[in-house]
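Q: What would this chain look like folded?
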Amino acid sequence: MNVLFVSRSICLSAGFVIAICLLAGCGGEAGPKIFPVTGQVTLDGKPLVKAMVQFRPVDGRSSYAETDAEGRFTLSYSARQPGALPGSHQVLITTASETETPASEQQETPQTVFTPEKLPKRYNAESKLTATVEPKKDNVIDFHLTTK
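A: My prediction, written as structure tokens:
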């Protein structure tokens, strides 16, 4: 009887492990197919630092990025998924921001700090910028902006 109990336990354990493995693989890839997008934003030939870049597709969710010290960006579709949907996108680039400073001993309530827009409206509020994300692994899309 002990042998039967051990055999049954092993079979149940193995069956449980197999079921978990199969269930984990059943979902496939969730969501739409997303492709990597990197690039650089310059303003009058110089890297544009801390700019927000948004790619708005015709249909679907936008992708976002913030430029680094060299004006480079990598788009994110979600917190866990870098890239953007394939196809045509309207592109918006802005430097305006709103940040909140925490309360401190000298300041009882948090303060909101607004950073004004450095870019002309043609790059954000009235943007005519466009880009096409191709279904490939190396979408490099640069934007060379001017203040004039």
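Residues 1-30 form one domain.
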